Amino acid sequence: MLIPIVLIAVITVVDIRTPDTVHLGPALVIAPALTPSFAGPRRVAFIGVLATVAQVVIAQWHGGLTTTNHLVQIPTIAVLSALIWSFSVVRQRRSRQLAQVRSVAEAAQQVLLWPLPERLGPLRVASLYLAAEDEAQIGGDLYAATRTEHGTRVMIGDVRGKGLPAVGEAALVLGAFREAAHEQSTLPRLARALDRSVTRYLADFEPTEEAGERFATVLLLEIPDDRPVTRLTSCGHPPPLLLSRGRPVSVPDVDPSPPLGVGGAGDAGSQLDLSFEPGDTLLLYTDGVVEARDGDGAFYPFAERAAQWTDDPPEALLHRVRRDLLGHAGGRLADDAALVALCRAPVPSRGPPPGPGRPRHPR
């Protein structure tokens, strides 16, 4: 607020001290023009009035208010200040509307993408969602996890398309997973249940002009509590990265079935059992990660970069990936991206056995 006031004072003093042939008064409009960048309509109006008054003061020192120049300059500054004020009012109204939209989007994200807990049984968990648009907080990427009788089931997926239709389909897939994950005994059966739900949804809501073009890719995982393995079933979704300390990053060779909504999900692709030892980390992602490009059009080398951080816990790992990914893409992604990191907690050391004469259970 101080800058435009000082600017008005400087221009006024300099104009008064210059000859009558020099007219700096019109430059006063710079002050109200700068004010909307850091102040609201009320302060813009105050600065506009102050600039107009300063022009009147200048006129008194240079021939009076009735000279031709001042009869033109004073109304001009007043009109321009009024226009700037009206623009600031519109800008403030739109800013409030945008804040409301963001608030609704954040609420929708919390409802659809429930925050994953930091611990699920023997797993340490972290998740990350990166929206391609600044105004959007949710899109067609999705993830979910739930505890079952014998372990943990996790899903990550990507709905084709954008906007409200993609959000609606994502909500359907998430709701269907949270219910069917407790009812289906195997991952292929779970995939077929999700496929039936998506197919029914598309039959009711898919636009005629998009018939056959709407689908969702998902990756399903089942991680038992008592065995160092994970089971995977892919419905057109890329496989996860397996990060193990002291070993290269590996990509499981998963035979995918068709995406949900196309038909045949859970049939063509068999379930894959993969070793998942304590200390290992599974890094799940959507295609917005691997398809991010830099200024030269090069794709993000996801596996190569992730290999540098195999010792990091899930939350720190995703923090590094986020910073590196956005740096590669120039600060903005072309598509939404979601990541989930799952680390099987290392088995705690039991220590040496108690020696002779030492109690096994200290009091």
Describe this protein's structure.
The chain is of the alpha+beta class. The chain contains 9 helices and 10 strands. Helix 5 runs antiparallel to helix 6.
| Mean pLDDT over the full residue set | 84
What is the molecular shape? elongated
Give the beta-strand count.
Answer: 10
Beta-strand percent range: 15-25%
The main pleated sheet reads as: 5 strands, antiparallel
C-alpha Rg (nearest Å): 31 Å
Structural class: alpha+beta
Which series of helices and strands comes N to C? HHHHEEEEHHEEEEEHHHE
Helix content: 40-55%
Distance between the termini: 69 Å
Poorly predicted regions are: 353-363
Compute the number of helices.
9
Strand order of the largest sheet: 1-2-10-9-7
Ordered list of secondary-structure elements with their pairings:
Blueprint: H1 2-17, H2 30-34, H3 41-61, H4 68-112, E1 119-120, E2 123-130, E3 141-147, E4 151-159, H5 163-180, H6 187-205, E5 216-224, E6 229-235, E7 241-243, E8 272-275, E9 281-285, H7 287-290, H8 302-306, H9 314-328, E10 337-344
Helix pairs in contact: 1-3, 3-4, 5-6
Describe the structure using short key phrases.
disordered C terminus; five-stranded antiparallel β-sheet; 363 residues; 9 helices; elongated; single chain; alpha+beta
Would you kindly provide a brief summary of this structure?
This protein is of the alpha+beta class and 363 residues long.
